[in-house]
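Review session, final week

We close the course with one last complete record, chosen because it touches almost every idea we covered. It is Ferredoxin, a protein from Heyndrickxia oleronia with 79 residues. Go through it on your own first, then we will talk.
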Amino acid sequence: MAFVITSPCEAEKAGECVTVCPVDCIEKGPDQYFINPDLCIDCGACVSVCPVDAIFEEYDLTDEQQPYLEKAEKFFGIL
């Protein structure tokens, strides 16, 4: 999984990331947006438009952000 959407999205859910994604890999979940790792092409377009800076590369996640990786994997049935 290249990018992960973290906690600031839960309060915002603005959706700018969805509109700029060239491969439509971002889906709205029940409480936030999620990036589908099987469709993501690692372009990073979503990162620059996120109004709450909620999107990070998987390998840059802090310990506090790690649960959002697991949450995304569950959402897409990877776990």
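Two points worth writing down before the exam:
The radius of gyration is 11 Å.
Strands lie at 3-5, 26-28, 33-35, 55-57.
Good luck, everyone.
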